Every structure is written in C-alpha cells, then in structure tokens.
Amino acid sequence: LASSAASDVYKRQMCACDDDKSYVDPGLEVTPHNLSGTWQLAEWQGAPLAEGSFVYIELTRKDQLFSMYQNLDSALPRELTGRFAITTDEELGAIVMGQYDYGIGDWNHQYIVTDLDADSMVWTAKDNPEDVSLYVRCESIPDEVTGGSDNEEE
After folding, report:
1. d(Cα 105, Cα 140) in Å, to the nearest integer?
2. C-beta of residue 64 within 8 angstroms of C-beta of residue 83
3. pTM, entire model
C-alpha cells in the first residue's frame, strides 16, 4: 500500500510537470537593488510618448534616491530629485512611491510595480488602473538631456 501511494504521488508530479504549459515567470522581486539603475519611459497608457518627449528616471539603491529628467510639462528638460520607497500591499503587491526634494511634495501617484525583469517593468497608478507606464532599462541618461557632454564645443 505504501509503495502504491508513493507511486501515485510520483505519477501526479510527473503529470503536473508535463501538463503545466501555463507557467508564468514571476519576474524579479521588487527591491531597491532590482530597481536600481536608469530607466526610460517607453509607453504610457499603451502608446509611445509623443515624438521628442521623454522621461528618464535613475533609481539609486543606496539611500533610495532618484533623479528624474523629463520634458512633459516644459519645452526644456527638467531635473527632479528626491527619495523613493517601496512597500508591499498584500493584495496589490509591491508599491513604489516618491517624494521630491525641496518641499515640492509627493509623486502624483503611488505605483504598483509588476512584470519587473532585467530589462523592463510596468508601473500602474494605485488610484487609476488606466495610468500604466512601461519603463525599459537603458545604459544612461543621454548627455543632450542632462546638459553634460564629453566633447564640449568652445
């Protein structure tokens, strides 16, 4: 009887493995370490940004600092800096939020972070499920955005 039960368990495990074609990679855990790096907003609400528009955010694991360059609300790039934090909601999962430096205030939304992998992540506004942002990892923020350059003209 014992060997029959063990055999049944083995068969179920084998069948479960063979039949499980719906495995979904859970991705990376949302931690300061895994978010650390430079990200570019690639899509907002399912569409690419308007030509010439950009948002770059650099998240620093140590001290959980961010530096954001964007031109969505001005003709020229603006740098915004501050701190970010990650919390976990039992139902929603990982949530990232931020506070700007110089008393500017909090980010407009708290964001549920999903589909985090080495190259991309999705942020969905906690209070507006239609506000969805796809970020892709990039090597650095371009010099033409930051105002820096290795070969400045005289």
Report:
1. 26
2. yes
3. 0.78
